[in-house]
């Protein structure tokens, strides 16, 4: 598998995951054939690709996930306005 294909697999896994994915989760996608540095490099490349979009790739204590960019939050809040109790 080439680097572009591996990046696509990581991107798809992160976009479809319900929870953040750890480095070990991401390496398991490839039967641990890719080392942590290679996966990290791909994650950093994906972060750069998504940096100017409404969704961003972020690293959390529990792993990596895509989340909405803070600057679009006011617009997204209009879809689900809070109702007073």
Tell me what the structure shows:
With 85 residues, the protein is α+β, with helices and mostly antiparallel strands. Helices cover 47% and strands 14% of the residues. It contains four helices and two strands, in the order H-H-H-E-E-H. The chain has helices at residues 3-16, 23-28, 36-50, 73-77, and strands at residues 55-60, 63-68. The protein has a two-stranded antiparallel ribbon with strand order 1-2. A hairpin with a 2-residue loop joins strand 1 (55-60) and strand 2 (63-68). Helix 1 packs across helix 3 (36-50). The chain is elongated. The N and C termini lie far apart (54 Å). The model has no long low-confidence stretch (mean pLDDT 93).
């Amino acid at each position: 598998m080439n680097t572009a294909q591996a990046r696509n697999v990581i991107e798809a896994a992160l976009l479809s995951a319900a929870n953040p994915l750890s480095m070990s989760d991401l390496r398991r996608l490839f039967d641990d054939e890719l080392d942590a540095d290679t996966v990290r490099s791909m994650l950093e490349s994906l972060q750069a690709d998504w940096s100017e979009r409404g969704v961003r790739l972020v690293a959390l204590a529990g792993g990596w996930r895509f989340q909405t960019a803070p600057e679009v939050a006011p617009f997204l809040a209009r879809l689900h306005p809070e109702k007073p109790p």
